[in-house]
Design the sequence.
């Protein structure tokens, strides 16, 4: 089972932050990073209960990218779900599907929780390798952020297995692979207005696949060889 990191982006209610720390204690998760949070005072401490040590040890980040440093898989949370491939940026797993997928992994999985009022921005969602959404009533589908954290961490807790982890590609290796794809898109003159879509779809595909180090090296070899060959041919013109 990987190490789980909880990242909360710009929380506006200190009580919610305390409640997240409390539920993290329930499920043996201690790594909490807050991105530009509201002021934390007595209400946060009161709501944290036995998770007070987690709240007090929380780290602060100025932006999402800083909070994700060292993460090998980034999972964004979304209150909107769709099965339509045309809305590929919003296709999400359920908490149980996510827990099953990451159980054999090693490394660090960052779970990114958005703002209480409007969640994560599109650019923040595009940075995520996978999305997760919690099925709920159509009449009121959006959960409180601390409740959502509790459901997600419960599924991770009960989904732990003793299976031997493969040597997965690290977060840095996967970012190198994404950069190689971007270079290949540029070298092939792939339409500029379609590149963002292609990169996000590739990121999500890699997130679902959880590639091994061996698979990473094979794909890097393919991308780099293709890019270099294209550029050599162009130089001869």
Sequence:
């Amino acid at each position: 089972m990987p190490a789980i990191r909880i990242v909360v982006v710009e929380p506006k209610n200190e009580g919610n932050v305390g409640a997240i720390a409390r539920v993290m204690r329930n499920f043996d998760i201690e790594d909490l990073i807050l991105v530009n949070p509201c002021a934390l005072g007595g209400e946060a401490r009161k709501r944290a209960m036995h998770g007070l040590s987690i709240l007090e040890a929380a780290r602060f980040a100025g932006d999402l990218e800083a909070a994700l440093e060292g993460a090998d898989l980034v999972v964004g949370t979304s209150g909107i779900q769709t099965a339509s491939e045309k809305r590929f940026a919003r296709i999400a797993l359920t908490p149980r599907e996510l827990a099953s997928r990451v159980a054999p992994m090693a490394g660090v999985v960052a779970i990114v929780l958005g703002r209480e009022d409007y969640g994560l921005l599109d650019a923040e969602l595009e940075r995520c390798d996978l999305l997760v959404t919690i099925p709920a009533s159509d009449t009121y589908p959006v959960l409180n952020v601390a409740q959502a954290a509790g459901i997600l961490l419960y599924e991770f807790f009960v989904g732990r297995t003793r299976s031997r982890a493969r040597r997965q590609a690290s977060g840095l290796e996967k970012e190198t692979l994404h950069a190689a794809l971007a270079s290949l898109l540029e070298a092939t003159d792939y339409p500029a207005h379609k590149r963002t879509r292609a990169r996000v779809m590739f990121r999500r595909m890699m997130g679902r696949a959880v590639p091994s180090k061996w698979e990473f090296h094979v794909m890097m070899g393919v991308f780099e060889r293709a890019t270099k060959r294209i550029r050599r041919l162009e130089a001869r013109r």
